[in-house]
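A note from the maintainers: we've had questions about how concatenated examples are separated. There is no special marker in the raw files; a new sequence line simply starts the next protein. For clarity in this README we add a label.
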Amino acid sequence: MLFLVVLFGGSGALAYAAFGSKIETVVLKNLPQASKPVQTVQFLYSLAILLSTPLQLFPALRILETALFVKSGKTSLRVKWTKNAFRLLVVLGCVAVSIFGAKDLDKFVSFVGSCACVPLCFVYPAMLHYKAVAKTRFQKGSDIALMVFGMLAAVYTSYQTIKLMAAPSGPAQPVGHCMPPEPGAGNGPDSPFWPGGRFF
């Protein structure tokens, strides 16, 4: 856990140290777009998302299909193709959300995090512990307090995110890039991070 905190916290801190207030939601957009290594990383990142989409959709589709379809597609060709059409609609819905939400990706991610991830972090573990493990009054009280805190946090953060989403957004800001090397500015050959400097 400590390793993950250091890894993600360090990555975020380095990104903010490099780009400051001009940092993008996806930090890859801050890198020079004409650079071949950057294009390779972006391609591999896109490929990873593309290949992991079925894995991410599988649990949600299973839950929805169990609730919507009584029969199995193994015995009925009609049910099988209805399920396939339903899966296609879910994927197209995700594509539509990604297209229309691309401009405000950070707000959309915040909304998903508020509605789904806050309960996943605070409410569900405490609920499971309360049902399966908690025996003493202190344990049960702690679980209930954590569940209440999680629900209040989810409602508050969701409200704040919806308010932020409803506020009019200005014109799209141009994508920031790394500054070209300038002598004496600390980002050129005189920088310790320049290839051949003391850190390389």
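[label: protein 2]
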Amino acid sequence: MVNLFEPFNGITFYLASIIFYGLLIAHLIECIVYRDKILQSKDTPIIAFG
């Protein structure tokens, strides 16, 4: 059974946290850097996210 409250123990918890927060920070930086390009896009959501 999957442990939903504490899925990772020990070093795997820290490794998973570093990967998760690293990707989150990278995405936020990407959104800030490309903010104008994203907002001025004329693409429909299906094309933009596809």
